[in-house]
TrEMBL record:
Coiled coil: none annotated. It holds the Pfam family HTH_1. This is LysR family transcriptional regulator. The lineage of its organism: Bacteria, Pseudomonadati, Pseudomonadota, Alphaproteobacteria, OCS116 cluster. Residues 1-58 form the HTH lysR-type domain. It comes from OCS116 cluster bacterium. GO terms for molecular function: DNA-binding transcription factor activity; sequence-specific DNA binding.
Length: 297
């Protein structure tokens, strides 16, 4: 087994480009291409279909990637047992977080974490989709969800309190809704997968909503549209607390809020042995975020 060949191939697949793998491994595109060609020649099959504008795995390439990933994970665990990395935070740590929460609340913590754990090689990615942790090679992900997928371990970071809000300019132009049914006559703002809204109110859970004024996969677009007066949004307090304090947004229908069973979690694949880098990151951000999330609850 050529460990470096497998590491190169995994990076090519996970970066979805030869140039991305080259940047990450700090080798030239020409060297990446040559080593991939050597690997394909040795295996006697094409692993990747690549043109100037397209990149895709062949069936053999996908199968080989899954096997390589498992091999490298097993090698990592075996080495960690000997080197002590299972007990000492060290090595590669790949983290994924939702874009807004990651940018506003996780990114400011990274410098302190890296200073406390200089032996960790941190790879931090923002993505609003629920990544497949195992398939994408993620060591730890931040999840905002009502329940945790089976097969994942977790620590709860806090409650995701959400409220209905709009800009004063929107309320001045369109009026403030007085009942939940009034929302049907207003411009609503939501990402493509957010509707319908599940709200907790005096009468229990209410499901409401309609078509969003704009179709978008970005929660940050929804946030900016709400601030600039385009409509009514259901937003997390951790996302809009400053705008509420500054008067750029105001709460509407305060008797209603987002379903209370949605939490914020750090999750990672269940395994017999969890690397110390994973648990160290989870507990570091849990402690660091506690004052902020408790203040917003």
């Amino acid at each position: 087994m050529n460990h470096s060949e497998y590491e190169l191939y995994r990076n090519i697949v996970e970066e979805a480009s030869l140039s991305g793998a080259g940047r990450k491994l700090r080798i030239s595109n020409a060297m990446v291409s040559k080593r991939l060609a050597d690997l394909e020649r040795r295996l006697g099959t094409q692993l990747i279909l690549r043109t100037t504008h397209q990149f895709s795995l062949t069936q053999a390439g996908q199968s080989f990637y899954e096997d390589v990933k498992n091999i490298l994970e097993a090698v990592h665990i075996a080495e960690a047992k000997i080197s002590g990395a299972l007990h000492i935070p060290a090595g590669r740590l790949r983290v994924s977080a939702p874009t807004s929460f990651g940018r506003l609340h996780i990114a400011p913590l990274l410098n302190g974490f890296m200073q406390a754990h200089p032996q960790i090689d941190l790879d931090f990615n923002l993505n609003d989709k629920f990544v497949d942790i195992r398939a994408d090679g993620i060591d730890l992900a931040i999840r905002i969800a009502a329940k945790i997928t089976p097969g994942l371990d977790h620590v709860r970071l806090g409650t995701n309190d959400r409220i209905l809000c709009a800009a004063p300019s929107y309320i001045k132009a369109r009026g403030e809704p007085q009942t939940i049914t009034d929302l049907h006559h207003h411009h609503l703002l939501a990402t493509n997968d957010q509707m319908p809204w599940r709200l907790a109110g005096p009468e229990g859970e209410v499901v409401t909503g309609g078509k969003s004024l704009i179709s978008t996969n970005s929660s940050e677009i929804v946030r900016e549209l709400a601030i600039t007066g385009s409509g009514i949004a259901l937003r997390s307090l951790w996302d809009i607390a400053d705008e509420l304090d500054a008067g750029q947004l105001q709460r509407i229908l305060p008797q209603y809020e987002g379903s209370a069973n949605v939490g914020i979690y750090a999750v990672w694949p269940h395994a017999e042995i969890i690397p110390a880098a994973v648990t160290s990151f989870a507990h570091y951000i849990q402690k660091a975020l506690k004052p902020t999330l408790e203040r917003l609850s």
